[in-house]
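Journal club side-thread
Mid-discussion, someone asked how the predicted structure for our own chain would compare to the paper's figures. Pasting it here so we can look after the session.
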Amino acid sequence: MASKQEMREEAERLVREALERKSVTIKHGATRIEATCGKCGAKNRVSAEKGETRVRYKCKECGHEQVTL
């Protein structure tokens, strides 16, 4: 049985080799933000484009419009 450290090193080695072979591409897409409504406290999943830090959204429970932090 391999230790966690050995498995971690093996995974890093495999990723490094795949990147060198160009068989894996890295994509940067939209980020999901778990936001809590300031009015009712409901959890909302909001999508933010790359580079955006604050996103306007409407609560799915009460409809309150707000901005993520």
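Post-session note: Residues 4-67 form one domain.
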